[in-house]
Structures are given as C-alpha cells and as structure tokens.
Amino acid sequence: MDNYSVKKLSALAGVSVRTLHLYDKMGLLKPSVRTEAGYRLYGEKELLRLQQVLFYRELDFPLKEIQIILDDPAFDLVLALEEHKKALLARKERINTLVGTIEKTLVTLKNKTMLRVEDLYDGIPREKIEAYRTEAMTKWGKQTVMEVEDTLRSFSKEEMELMKKELNELTERLSTLMTGDPASTEVQACIARRYQIILRLTGGKIEMGKLEYFRKLGELYVADNRYTPVNGLPSMELALFIKEATDHYVKMQSQ
Amino acid sequence: MDNYSVKKLSALAGVSVRTLHLYDKMGLLKPSVRTEAGYRLYGEKELLRLQQVLFYRELDFPLKEIQIILDDPAFDLVLALEEHKKALLARKERINTLVGTIEKTLVTLKNKTMLRVEDLYDGIPREKIEAYRTEAMTKWGKQTVMEVEDTLRSFSKEEMELMKKELNELTERLSTLMTGDPASTEVQACIARRYQIILRLTGGKIEMGKLEYFRKLGELYVADNRYTPVNGLPSMELALFIKEATDHYVKMQSQ
DNA sequence: ATAGGCTATGACGTAAGGTAAGGGTCAAGA
DNA sequence: TCTTGACCCTTACCTTACGTCATAGCCTAT
C-alpha cells in the first residue's frame, strides 16, 4: 500500500527529491514508512496531502502556514484565504506602482537620448560629427563620452550659447595673440579661461584622466513626481566640444 | 567634506546601519574615508550614490544588479528596465491567477456552508434550529460548530440515518432503564454506546474540550477541476446532534 | 575616571530549497 | 558471485538582504 519512493513521488507531483526531504524534516509531509535501509515510502494518503501542500504553495502561502492550515483544527481557512487575497492584492498594487515608475523613467531616458543623438547633429555635417564622436570614444571610452553628453545636456540653451560664443572669441583672440609672446599674461589668461569653460562643459573632471561619474539625479527623480527636470534642452554641436576637450587634454598631458 | 557617520547617513537615507555595513562589504557603497579607529565616514558623493541605490532597490532590483548598473559603463540601463518591467508584469499576471483561484475556492467554500445551512433545516422548525445553533456556538465557539457540521457532512446519508436511529433507540431504552439501578451494567453499556456514537458524529474529540479539525479534501480540489467532492450530502437535522453533543458534554463536565 | 553613546567585526538566523560530497542499497546482467 | 548503474541516505554549505545579538574598542562629557 506504500508504493511511492521519493523519486516516484517527486516525479508524480512535480517536485524535487530535495523538497520531499525538506518537507519530511520539517514535518510537513512524513513518509508513511521507512524501510530498514532508511528509504522513505509514501502511500496514497501522503500523495493527497502533498497535493494539498502544493495547492497552498501555489497560492504563495509560506510552508509554515501551510503546516498550520493542514494540522491545526482551529484554523479558519476562509479567513486565511481572505487575508491572503488582501496581501496578494497589495502586492499587485505595489507592482503597478513599480511598473508605472519604470515606464516614466523609460520615457524620460528615451526622450533624452533619442532627442539628443538626433538633435546634436544640428547644423553640422553628419559624418564629421560621427568622426569626432568615434575618435573621442576610442580615446576616452564610450561611457565617458556619454557622460560628457549628459553633462552638456544639463546646461540650458542660453548658457550653452554663451559659453560657445566665448569659446570662439577666445580661440580667435588666441590665434591673434600667438604672434606675440606666448607666455604673456594675456595669453595665459585666455588659455586659463578657455580651460575653465571646457572643464565646466565636460563636467569639470576631464583632467583627472577619467571623467567623474555624473549621475543626473533628475532622471531618477522624474519618476518620483517630486522633481521635474529643470534644464532646457540645448541643441548644440556636441562633437565640437568633445573634440575641443580631447585636444586640450592631450595638450596638457604632453606639456 | 566627509561629514556623515554611519548613524547619520543611515538616518538621512532611512536605512539601517547594518545595511550600510553590508553595502560597504559587498562594495556597493564604500565610505569615502575610514578614521584611524576604523570608523566609516561618508561624503556628499556617497549620499548621492546611496540615493541611486535606493531608487533601484525600490524597483526591486537585486543589489548585485544595482552594483552592475552603477559601476559598469557598458550597462544598458534601458534594456535592464524593460526586462525588469516584463518580469514585474509576469509577477502581476501570476498574482491575478492566484487571486482568481482563491476567489473560486472561497465561493465554493461559502456555497457549501450556505447550501448546508439551508439544507440542514430539513424537517425541523427553522427558529428552533437556529436557537440550537446559536446556543452551541455560544458555548463552543462558531468555529467549533462549523467543524462539527463539516464532520457530519462527511458521513453518507445511510450511515447518518443508521446512527440517528440507534441514538433514538438508546435514548428510549435509557429512559426505561432509569427507573431501575442507574449503575447497572446495562445502563452503563447504553451510556457508553451513546457516547461513542456522539463522539463519532462530532468528530471524536468533543471530550477534549475542542473538536477535532476535519479537513475535507474535496473542497480544495474544486478549484483544481480534477477532483469533485465524493461524499453524499446527508440532509438531516444537524441541530439535534449539536444539542445532544452539547448536553452530553455539559453532563460529563458536571460529574 | 567613568558612564553612556557610538562604532567595529563576527557570527547566527531567516525561506525554500539547489548543489554537491561521501557513502549505502538494490536489482539485473555477465 | 561480482559488478554496474540507478537509486537512496545524511550532512552541509550556498543563495538574498538584511535583523539581531555578542563582544569589544572609541569618544566625549561630567
């Protein structure tokens, strides 16, 4: 009458042998007999009990509670099921919130990167920019370039235009001054100012040999509804700045 | 610049000190410095990183994965979020199924007791039965009475009739014999037999002060669609038995 | 100097098993 | 009768994300 070995029972019920061992040890499902060699043998009654255990397990009841349900005469099954249902619904609600958060975050992320990568080509021949980008990525690594891009994006359109303009003026003045004394205070001031701007544009850490990790809190907190992105979306020629920064860095290194 | 001790940071971020210890050991969030005494000190940068960690933790990402997200430049955040969303939706689907199963089970359970409560009044004035039931519930507790009802339901109609008949005969014979010696072996035999039957009807444990819990397998498997309840549905006067059992118990107690 | 508050490390426990390690048992074929 | 392969046993460590001690060092105010 006790027909099932662990293997057979496990195959029958679709659980692992280890699970049966565990259930045995914790008293949730004991074999009806043990052979003298210590083998576990289960009968039909145990199969039925296992079915019940699995039923409740499927419902995500913890094993301890299943044991109570099956063994405690005073257990109110209906109440337990209703409680459990409530808990499940709460979990579902939580998941809904999480999914909503993820979706919002995804929208923000996609809008940002999509828009940028397209937008940044604005006014510059496409292949030239791609060349700059590729060059910069080879030199600094993909991640670094993307971080610089993020930094750049954090500036408003106006700020960006201002800096770009000043940078151009400085470059022009430098090329004029270069005909004179390259160590003059005016030249030094120009270089320093130019360096300052580039540092700011690239996140301020480019001289360390690696870009400081720039986590834009905004993108995280969007989902939070407490913060909204405040920065405008400067549509500018990213590649130029990357190139500038790279060149500058190389120059500083070689000095 | 490194202002936060473990306590302060934990208070600030709303996590336990233990959590910070753990994050440190696993490399998820290292303090910026250690004092010579080994105390951890965190700066603003670490606070920011902790915020990020908590953001992803809120989304139910495992810590290992968070570490990858934050440290690996080549990590595709969008992809990860989309994967995670899919996983969450799957979990939600599963919960929906579970809730459905629970609801079906609850309906079945309730239908059963409903049906019974109606059926059991068969042949007896309604208000009388309700009085018995109420009395028994006060004395034994609602749960207990319901368990007795379950036990009664587990007998077949024929069995039930047989026991009822014998019970009536015994009662009659007792009232006849009571005119003689109340300690005679025949009286004792009658009482014993009567007791035996009542015990069986009430689940065999009424003398323990609590009724043995009677699990009907069928009710669980309804939701499973593989099993259907096999027991007949004895339409009998439950209240009488409850009353009998209660009286008997009280008598035994007072002796 | 001592009390009380903060800190450190280490270890154990949780749920539900997975994954060996190391070693018996059993039935069938050679 | 021996061996092989399939099956079985127990013990024990691993997993997640911490909570909860235990023991001990550090720091500061009175």
From TrEMBL, chains A, B:
UniProt cross-references to Gene3D superfamilies, sorted A to Z: 1.10.1660.10, Antibiotic binding domain of TipA-like multidrug resistance regulators
Residue span, HTH merR-type domain: 3-72
Xref: CDD domains: HTH_TipAL-Mta (cd01106)
Coiled coil: 153-180
Claim: Transcription is one of the keywords in the record: yes
Keywords on record: Activator, Coiled coil, DNA-binding, Transcription, Transcription regulation
InterPro entries recorded: DNA-bd_dom_put_sf (IPR009061), MerR-type_HTH_dom (IPR000551), MerR_fam (IPR047057), TipA-like_antibiotic-bd (IPR036244), TipAS_dom (IPR012925)
Record flagged with keyword Transmembrane: no
Name recorded for this polypeptide: MerR family transcriptional regulator
Organism per entry: Niastella soli
Organism lineage: Bacteria, Pseudomonadati, Bacteroidota, Chitinophagia, Chitinophagales
